[in-house]
Amino acid sequence: MEFIRSSLLKDHTTATEVKKIDLPVNPLSHLIISMDGYNATDEATLAEILAFINKVTVTHLGTSILDLESEDLAALNAYLYHAHPILTNNVATDNAARVLSLIVPFGRHIFDPDECFPATMKGELTLSLDTTVPATSFDNSTLNIEAVELLGAAPKRYLKSTLKSVAAPGATGDNDIDLPRGNKIVALLLYNTTFPSTSSHTYGIDTVKLLVDNKELGYSLARAQCLVGDMIFKLQTLSRDIAAFGQVLPAHYFWMDFNPADNDNFLLETKGKSSVILRAGMGVNEAAKVTVVELVDVSGA
Amino acid sequence: MSTQKVLSFFGTCSANAELTLVSQPVQTPFRVIAVLAHFALNTNRALQLDVYLSPDDVAPSSGRPNGISMCREYSQAQYITGDDETKTLHHELISPTYPSWLKVYANNTDAFDHTVDVQVEIEILERD
């Protein structure tokens, strides 16, 4: 099997815009989005640089395949690739050159001919990159985007990653979040607005429970502290929240993993279910975000 | 047999403000068939409307909602406007995900309040 790695955007000056790019027509493994620029005065943190990429969206004929804010994409990268996104030259020197790269995945593993986005016709698959011109902490920024196509691949499934915003429920306690049905769920990445740093044990989402057709399934009750502990199975470094620790994402995230052993034995099947509910025990009455990572079957079986 | 439904959105967008109206959850896959946007007399193309397909029901008090904008796909402007007219948009879009929500986003650039009056026709599709 052959692959083609090609450049879609070359040294494009980062602007406040929604940049649209037609994606290649062959089966797609992943995209690489790199933002480079210079430190402005002192070290630009990962969170500060990510803030200039507002949203990354891939649509197929107008339907979302991936629709995430950059922080959520960074967390998804951490979950999938067991490492934090690459950010070079972490020094405080003014004008030090920095590069941040994010991977836009169409499968859980790169270069997987069984799990990637199927071939399309020109114009059907589109990337939208919503950016803000960097300033204050980071400047002289350009963007480069590349794609990896797998020639002749006939994927059986692809990865779909969408962001579900959750409004403040009005009170602490149980908040039922309706999850999408029809596909297998690989993981739920949960963003907590409140993540304890000093003199507090409280998380935005303190506990989680999964109800399928109104019966507990899998996660009967899991607490935030232990879900943070689950990161040891996917990440080589810990989640950190305080600026002095380097703002290493996923600072405000933990996840509910339905593929903990990487063997597909525990994927959450939602096809044919009447309801799939994430019951979040809110420690704080506040908004949250859930990134739903699904596998879409295209095998025709 | 196809089943068609109309989702109705109605509200008031204050002067120089934004408003997001959210449907009830649609618990099946569906196809958007048409969008009907009514613009009152003297709206003077100052009321900008967009329709979103969204995986959640959150209506932000300012800014665009989460989801995929129908106007963003190929358009030059990410909204439609009008004055004393009804615009019918035959924009077909399939939502395979369920539940999902339709949202109407309004941005009123005028110094007067304006009414948001939109209907979206959908066709319910079979679950896989």
- How many domains comprise the coordinates of chain B? 1
Cα-based radius of gyration of chain B, to the nearest Å: 14 Å
Poorly predicted runs of chain B? none
Number of separate structural domains of chain A: 2
CATH-assigned homologous superfamily of the largest domain in chain A: Viral coat protein p3
Helix vs. strand class of chain A: mainly beta
Shape call of chain B: globular
State the CATH topology of the largest domain in chain A.
Adenovirus Type 2 Hexon, domain 4
CATH architecture assignment name of the largest domain in chain A: Distorted Sandwich
Residue-averaged pLDDT of chain A:
92
Query: What is the CATH architecture annotation of chain B?
Result: Sandwich
How would a textbook summarize the main sheet of chain B? 5 strands, antiparallel
What top-tier CATH class of the largest domain in chain A fits best?
Mainly Beta
Distance between the termini of chain B: 15 Å
Number of H/I helices of chain A: 3
Give the fraction of residues assigned to helices of chain B: under 10%
Quantity of strands of chain B, as a count: 9
Shape of chain A: globular
* Mean pLDDT across residues of chain B: 94
Q: What is the beta-strand fraction of chain B?
A: over 45%
Task: State the order of secondary-structure elements of chain A, H for helix, E for strand.
Answer: EEEHEEHEEEEEEEEEHEEEE
